[in-house]
Amino acid sequence: MSALIWLAGGIMIAAAIFAVEARKILDAVIAMSALSLVSVFLFIAMRAPDVAITEASVGAGLVTAVLLVTLFRMRGGDDK
Amino acid sequence: MRRFYAILVAAGLVYMLFMFLGTIVPYGKADVADRVSAHFLAKDVNSISPTKWVEGDKQVPHSERVYGRKGFEDGSANVVTSIVVNYRSFDTLGEVTVLFASAVGVGLILGGTRRMKYGRKPNFILRVSTGILLPLIILFGIYIFVHGHLTPGGGFPGGTIIAAAVLLLYLSNEEFSLNMIVSKSLEGSMGSLYVIFGLIGLAAGGAFLFNFLPNGVVGSLFSAGVVPLVYMTIGLKVGSELSGVVAEIHEEREG
């Protein structure tokens, strides 16, 4: 279990660095979403279900969707 | 090769999900005495033995363990809620105000009259599965904020899940657009209802957002006094507010 928590923390750090260094914005958004998802697992393991539910619905769900729609609108603006 | 890596990453994430869900005790197997409630009733998380507590051996009398003023955390089964919506409720009012300010900002900048089109027909699987999943998602959101004082969750995640259902409607139907008058009026009335609850508490108990209803039995649906009412108003307010934000980012101006 402890090794899994270390693995989750490592994935979070890797996803954060990838989100900063990614060349395409879409990859950065997806890396942010993955970071939120893995942090939800960590919150479950640390017995903080309130924070886990909020993080899953806000961080991994709605924020990613809003960023993706914003990205779509920016692309649409470039084409015109 | 990229597909191979993608499958590898997805399999790893699913494996981690199941490993972490494995730490949750299965249904029916949980030792109820080991839950937070016994620690919570004893107002102690370290020295108390919950099993002995339930059997009747209350190691330290309850009256000696009350921190702060008595009765503030005795109502709801979920301790986080009893802090957030009971005696720290003014913080929650501020949080709701921050969300309202950001929603107003989004509405001012992105407001428009025409619905943005994605420019492609939604496929069959998305349309049919939206029809099946939408009632379940909305019901789950309502469950999360109605049971906020019993189970983990509360107004904010419940409202966000309802907004996610509205987003699903926007993605699956090119013609759909939210009725902004209904969402704005629901949001405004629920926000003022929260303040009205606070003013009733001020009149009845002498403090803003005072818990003026009886606490009832811990664990039943109508318990914890004003907490479920406040969480219902917060849930409806956040749900309509974020649905409005989702609707506004799908709007564009003419020309």
* Multimer state: heterodimer
* Largest interface, chains and sizes: A-B, 28 and 29 residues
Largest sheet of chain B: 2 strands, antiparallel
Share in helix of chain B: 55-70%
Number of E strands of chain B: 2
* Average pLDDT rating of chain B: 79
As a whole number of angstroms, the C-alpha radius of gyration of chain B is 23 Å
Instruction: Supply the helix-strand structural class of chain B.
Output: mainly alpha
Please state roughly what percent of the residues of chain B sit in beta strands, choosing from under 5%, 5-15%, 15-25%, 25-35%, 35-45% or over 45%.
Answer: under 5%
Helix content of chain A: over 70%
Please work out how many helical segments of chain A DSSP would assign: 3
Tell me the number of helical segments of chain B per DSSP (H or I, 4 or more residues long).
9
Distance between the termini of chain A: 52 Å
DSSP E strands of chain A, number: 0
Low-confidence stretches of chain B: none
The general outline of chain A is flat
Query: How would you state the average pLDDT of chain A, rounded?
Result: 84
What is the strand and helix layout of this fold?
The complex is a heterodimer of chains A (80) and B (255).
Chain A: H1 2-21, H2 25-45, H3 49-79
Helix pairs in contact in A: 1-2, 2-3
Chain B: H1 2-21, H2 36-42, H3 50-55, H4 79-87, H5 89-110, E1 114-115, H6 124-146, H7 155-172, H8 180-205, H9 227-248, E2 251-252
Antiparallel strand pairs in B: 1-2
Helix pairs in contact in B: 4-5, 5-9, 6-7, 6-9, 7-9, 8-9
Key traits:
heterodimer, A: 80 residues, mainly alpha, 90% helix, B: mainly alpha, 2 domains, 2 strands
Short summary:
The complex is a heterodimer of chains A (80) and B (255). With 80 residues, chain A is an all-alpha fold.
